[in-house]
User: Fold this.
Amino acid sequence: MGRSPCCEKQHTNKGAWTKEEDQRLINYIKTNGEGCWRSLPKAAGLLRCGKSCRLRWINYLRPDLKRGNFTEQEDDLIINLHNLLGNKWSLIAARLPGRTDNEIKNYWNTHIKRKLYNRGVDPQTHRPLNDATVSATIATAVPPQAQIITSHNNIIIKDASIVSNSNKDNYVNTKINGTKLVCEDSNSNSSSGVSSDQEAYQHQQLNLDLSIGLPSSRPQINTHSLKLLQQPQDGDEQQETKVAPSHGVCLCYSLGFLRNKVCCCNRDIGNTVTTAVTDNNMYRFYRPMNI
DNA sequence: AACGAACTCAACCGCGCTCTC
DNA sequence: AGAGAGCGCGGTTGAGTTCGT
Assistant:
């Protein structure tokens, strides 16, 4: 049993949008607002499928879109967000006002990938690409779970505590083919051997202030958390576990989760803090502000 | 000037998720 | 509980544009 088509294909236009079609769509959305894309084309007098209308509006016609080239700051932000989130273009776009996921995806594929290759960085892994010596050194000195950030001619190893002392002595702050390995201790703001321009770079590093647990990290969740994860989403307030008498910040919005939906994390913001709730495979965390 | 190659990006496609009935 | 509708996402396509010879 196949999926029904989103529209009657033989009665819809395809390809580039005309100015008249754009104007019809703009006029309709100005009057009626976004939403109900399936019925929109007919209501707006457009021979397009709803998906096509939605895409045209979101990627091209929306008034809050930023036009023009990406700035260096946006480039860096995209690279850092991609390092953190992978190909989650919608999440990345949520962090760049006026940019769309499609635009960022295209920009990544046409510009940034090449830029990273030119820097000798693998755009998928964000690890050094073509310098066998550097790669081999990192493979030797740095545990695979370490977070690595490439910066100019430096490779910054976040969370230095998981790098053994002997490896720190042997490799950190040494230059290999012009690339310097730098350790950064996650418990302190200072990095060992970090020069002023490196610090300036690190200040630009992304601080999303996040706590995200993926399903693979489930074993790390204690029984208390699991109890929270199993609780019903709505209504059953007695099962809501009181964790700390503090206010909190819902991270769902800032991450771009639950767009267009009311987040259920922040119910009873007073003294009750839901530390984690779950939608199938995604845990959503609610962070007390005093942590 | 002409042609093909390379590049860009708007648009399309198909899948997965959520919601409703 | 399960099927279908609707939406959003990521990957891919292809027409238009730019570049190189």
